[in-house]
Amino acid sequence: MTTPPTDDELDIAMRHVVTRLTSTPELEGTFPGGVWDDGPPPGIAVPYVSVGVQAALDSQVVDGRTVLVVVTARVVVTTNADTYPAAEARAAHLALHRTKAGRVVACRRSQSLRYSEREDDRRWRYQGGLYVLTIGAAAGD
Predict the structure, then answer these.
(1) Does residue 41 register a pLDDT over 70?
(2) How far apart are CA 127 and CA 89, in angstroms?
(3) How do beta strands 65-79 and 35-37 pair?
């Protein structure tokens, strides 16, 4: 019997994504509204980035011990401009795709996203992707 992914792996995945989006010098000024876990508070500048965990699963288990956890994170740049935030989404992609650090042994985009929605008299546009992060077991797990 396996155990579900712990908050530890989910937190590691989210920290990797947020750190890459907030500490990469090339991104300075790209997201004036910041990077937010599942959406910002009202009144934030655009564009901003919304990140969140979509799914997590134990992908490799040996003798009941989880060796690898795969976390899928949604990373979406949001704007209310007349066009999609393609340049900003590309910058986020370049900061995340094919990265690794610590227990994150791999991060890659698995799917591109682009959609819009209307709210009252405004149109919101979203662009980004789903990123698959492979998290290795902690020492002693």
Answers:
(1) yes
(2) 6
(3) unpaired
* Strands of the chain, DSSP E: 35-37, 48-62, 65-79, 99-101, 104-119, 122-136
Nearest to 75 by CA among 46, 111, 99, 41: 111
Q: Which residue's structure tokens are 């899928």?
A: 72
Residue 5 has pLDDT above 70, yes or no: no
Report the range of poorest mean pLDDT among 54-58, 76-80, 84-88, 128-132: 54-58
Q: Token pair of 55, please?
A: 């799914």
Give 64 or 20, the one with higher predicted confidence. 20
Torsion of CA 123, 84, 26, 108, to 10 degrees: 110
The pLDDT of residue 141:
55
The one-character DSSP state at 103 is T
Where b means 16+ CB within 10 Å and e means fewer, 17-42 reads: bbbbbeebeebeebbebebbeeebee
Q: DSSP 3-state assignment of 11?
A: helix
Q: DSSP class of residue 16?
A: H
Of the candidates 99, 115, 118, 116, the residue with the CA atom closest to the CA atom of residue 107 = 99
